[in-house]
Amino acid sequence: MTAPSRRLFVTAALGSLLVGCGGNGDGGGQGTSPRPSSPPSPSASKVKSARPLGRSKPVGLRIPAIEVDTPVMGLGLAKDGSVQVPPITADDRAGWYRHSPTPGQVGPSVILGHVTVGSYGDGVFRHLGRLRQGDRIVARLENGAAAEFGVTAVRTVAKAEFPADDVYGDVDRPELRLITCGGPRSGDWYRDNVIVFAVLR
């Protein structure tokens, strides 16, 4: 990612909240302005990262520890400036935010998915919060390669305190962010976001 495009990504991201929830069936994001987070980034871990990969869009995602094996679609920004989420369908899948690096490139690649998909039931990321440090995540890429990551941290945070800097901020190695909803639920709305941080290995 070039410096101008990276700045565009961070600027857009800081004005948007990744929701990743199932619910009303419109498939749109819910924009808000998250406050920057003061705690140190979980990516500050001393885990050694592998050599970066070339740019190639993700087409699949596998997380053995929680039995996820899903296609990955591309996502952009909704009309309100928030990050899109995958559509609410029975054939639920994860979505890669295409203004972020591809998995394996230097920087934080962002993939989100639903925890529930309305009347269809559980979403593809329903067990995301069960992941633990060291668990494996494999992104299958369009060029036939695979980017394998190891989980470094899992956080549940209130949406009103979404840690935009930790999720979108520049890092000097290939990292991955998986995001969904969590915490108490009221109808189709969840109070929190579950965020998984991982590093290429």
Automatic annotation (TrEMBL):
<dbReference type="InterPro" id="IPR042001">
    <property type="entry name" value="Sortase_F"/>
</dbReference>
<keyword id="KW-0378">Hydrolase</keyword>
<dbReference type="InterPro" id="IPR023365">
    <property type="entry name" value="Sortase_dom-sf"/>
</dbReference>
<feature type="region of interest" description="Disordered">
    <location>
        <begin position="20"/>
        <end position="58"/>
    </location>
</feature>
<protein>
    <submittedName>
        <fullName>Class F sortase</fullName>
    </submittedName>
</protein>
<feature type="compositionally biased region" description="Gly residues">
    <location>
        <begin position="20"/>
        <end position="31"/>
    </location>
</feature>
<dbReference type="InterPro" id="IPR005754">
    <property type="entry name" value="Sortase"/>
</dbReference>
<feature type="compositionally biased region" description="Low complexity">
    <location>
        <begin position="43"/>
        <end position="52"/>
    </location>
</feature>
<dbReference type="Pfam" id="PF04203">
    <property type="entry name" value="Sortase"/>
</dbReference>
